[in-house]
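Students often ask why inverse folding is considered easier than folding. One informal answer: many sequences map to the same fold, so there is more than one right answer. In these notes we will look at a single instance of the problem. The structure comes first.
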């Protein structure tokens, strides 16, 4: 069988493979972050643990020298500092983080855990049991969302592979029929070739319809960076000339089949 190529599908498969690798890294990073959270637990403030003292000039002491006023300044507890460190060392430590996101701790947590929760973690002072549970639950959702997204990416990869395999079979048959057109001495033989081409056209159209149904039958859970766009837009809009790569190669195949059918009219 003649081996043909589907250039747009091949580029799309490469894009999906790359995204699967990145999302899998992030899923594992959130899994490690959640594991570290499980080792922490919430904490309750103890007297004075939220304050540090620093001197401030401006008054006179009893001995006549400048007075040193004690100003209490809030400082995060050990537990809260541990959460921030764990997040930086897991979620923000994936190799592609700076290239793909480049967010600060506050920006990343706001995107992944929600702005309110991120504010408590980044600007708060104590990892209370309630805050701890909220961070843990939100982090587990972020991990699970990536697992769900990986499932959708796997389905897209499988769909592209199925289209490519069937399209290769159609195009290989088309190459054979092109040769028969060149060699057909009679109109009767050309008619038989045209019948075979019509069958290919039907297969190609059916394949396009099935791909279209696959696209419309999807739903994607929210994940940071994917909200408000379709999976195909997210994957292909900025990297390919089309957001429907399989349909693009199928359309080219249909054009080629119909062109050969016109040659049978001579």
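Output (designed amino acids):
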């Amino acid at each position: 069988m003649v081996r043909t190529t589907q250039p747009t599908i091949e580029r799309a498969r490469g894009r999906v493979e790359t995204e699967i690798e990145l999302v899998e890294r992030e899923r594992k990073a959130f899994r490690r972050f959640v594991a570290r959270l499980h080792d922490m637990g919430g904490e309750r403030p103890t007297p004075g643990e939220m304050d540090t003292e620093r001197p401030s000039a401006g008054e006179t002491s009893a001995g006549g020298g400048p007075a040193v006023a004690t100003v209490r300044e809030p400082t995060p507890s050990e537990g809260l500092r541990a959460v921030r460190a764990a997040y930086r060392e897991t979620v923000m430590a994936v190799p592609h983080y700076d290239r793909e996101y480049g967010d600060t701790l506050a920006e990343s947590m706001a995107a992944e855990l929600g702005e309110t929760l991120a504010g408590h973690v980044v600007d708060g002072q104590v990892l209370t049991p309630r805050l701890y549970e909220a961070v843990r639950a939100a982090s587990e959702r972020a991990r699970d969302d990536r697992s769900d997204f990986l499932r959708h990416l796997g389905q897209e990869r499988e769909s592209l592979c199925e289209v490519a395999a069937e399209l290769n079979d159609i195009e290989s048959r088309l190459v054979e029929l092109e040769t028969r057109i060149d060699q057909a001495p009679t109109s009767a033989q050309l008619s038989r070739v045209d019948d075979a081409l019509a069958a290919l056209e039907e297969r190609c159209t059916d394949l396009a319809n099935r791909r279209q149904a696959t696209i419309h039958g999807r739903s994607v859970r929210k994940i940071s960076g994917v909200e408000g766009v379709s999976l195909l837009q997210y994957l292909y809009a900025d990297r390919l000339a089309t957001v429907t790569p399989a349909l693009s190669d199928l359309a080219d195949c249909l054009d080629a089949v119909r062109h050969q059918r016109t040659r049978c009219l001579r």
